[in-house]
Write a structure and sequence with these properties.
Layout: E1 2-6, H1 11-27, E2 32-38, H2 43-46, E3 54-57, H3 70-90, E4 95-98, H4 105-113, E5 118-122, H5 129-134, E6 140-143, E7 159-161, H6 177-184, E8 191-196, H7 203-215, E9 221-226, E10 243-246, H8 253-258, E11 261-264, H9 268-277, E12 281-283, H10 293-303, E13 307-309, H11 317-328, H12 331-344, H13 349-364
Parallel strand pairs: 1-2, 1-4, 2-3, 4-5, 5-6, 6-7, 8-9, 8-11, 9-10, 11-12, 12-13
């Protein structure tokens, strides 16, 4: 049973698809996921290292600020349509699962034209353009944030369910905080702050943390700092007795298990992980994210009492220091934040979405005659 997965451009659109595909194969080994992505997206670096077959196509986003470049979008879409048709002629898909981003639009349009059921997974609290455009004809829409439902106009026969964002769940039984800190060589009684701007890093966040460290950290505070691969060279020498600096936190579970507090961007997958682990957070949304969706994500988590929203325009070593000191001195608030996050967390989302997809495929499978 072949299933096309279409999505990418960013990790937030690719990683949910990979998590769902792996859960599908684990439940039903007869499923054969095939990934469709963009040559210019993160998938060109990630998909070659996975276990799944894939194709990368000349797909482009809509160029809103430079509309004269949209000829690239149209030209690339035409070529992608032909390639998807060729792939389907050899082995037709029974389902197309789209996880968002410009890499998924053509595959969804092709599926609609050819009568193949489509499923959307929307990871953010404010749905992207692709999700909104194709919601009406989808067989199902699975949401990472229940708040996204108010922005979607689904079809009369569309199932909408908030099953969460697919992530690698925390281990069971959990790793003790003391054991996790021992792995990092940090004191068991430290107040550990995890700082991460994602795989590529966040320059504004890195600069603020570097100055914060230089000015002197609050007493008892230790830092696990993921700078991002592309920015690591500028910060790796900032390591100190209570500061651990890494280009990339992999596996990040070791850092989550050790942390009292996280300072991160507000991407959907990051928030899903923070909720699953119950880590109180200071969220610094990327201000240039499409439709400012990271700010929407942050506000959603602030509303349940799980995070502090610190806009990038207000981020500095001084504001970071003041925020961390305030939270460090309020253990009751940290407990309440953790409780709210754990109630929101959906650590088994990948398996839940995979199970729902299998039921859906069964419902759409032609009956034997």
């Amino acid at each position: 049973m072949r299933v096309f997965f279409a999505g990418g451009g960013t990790g937030g659109h690719l990683y949910p698809g990979l998590a769902i595909a792996r859960a599908l194969v684990k439940i039903a080994p007869q499923v054969a996921p095939f990934f469709i992505g963009a040559e210019r997206g993160i998938e060109r670096d990630i998909l070659p290292s996975t276990e799944f077959p894939y194709t990368l196509l000349d797909l482009h986003p809509l160029y809103r600020r430079t509309p004269w470049n949209n000829w690239r979008t149209l030209f690339g879409a035409a070529g992608a349509w032909r390639e998807i048709s060729r792939l389907a002629e050899k082995d037709p898909p029974q389902l197309v699962v789209a996880t968002g981003g410009y890499a998924s639009g053509v595959a969804l349009a092709w599926a609609r034209m050819h009568g193949v059921p489509t499923v959307l997974h929307e990871s953010n609290s404010h749905p992207g353009l692709t999700t909104r455009a194709f919601a009406g004809g989808a067989a199902a829409i699975y949401l990472g944030f229940p708040e996204a439902a108010e922005y979607i106009k689904e079809g009369s026969n569309t199932l909408v369910a908030a099953l969460g964002n697919p992530i690698d769940p925390p281990p069971v039984p959990p790793v003790s905080r003391a054991d996790a800190r021992a792995k990092w060589g940090l004191p068991a009684d430290a107040f550990v702050v995890l700082v991460s701007g994602g795989s590529q890093g966040a320059r504004a966040l890195n600069d603020a943390v570097a100055t914060w460290c230089a000015n002197g950290l609050p007493e008892g505070v230790a830092i696990i700092w993921g700078t991002g691969r592309s920015q690591a060279a500028a910060y790796l020498d900032r390591a100190a007795e209570l500061v651990r600096v890494r280009a990339y936190l992999a596996p990040i579970a070791d850092a989550y298990a050790a942390a009292d507090l996280a300072v991160t961007r507000a991407g959907a997958m990051t928030i899903a992980e923070l909720c699953a682990w119950g880590i109180p957070s200071v969220l610094v949304p990327l201000p240039t994210a499409a439709q400012d969706h990271q700010t929407q994500n942050a506000r959603t988590i602030v509303a349940i009492g799980g995070a502090i929203h610190l806009p990038q325009g207000e981020l500095s070593a001084e504001s970071l220091d003041a925020t961390v000191r305030a939270l460090q001195s309020r253990p009751d608030q940290l407990v309440a934040m953790r409780t709210g996050l754990l109630q929101r967390g959906r650590p088994t989302a990948a398996a839940e979405v995979a199970g729902a997809l299998l039921q859906l495929v069964g419902a759409h499978r032609p009956s034997a005659r």
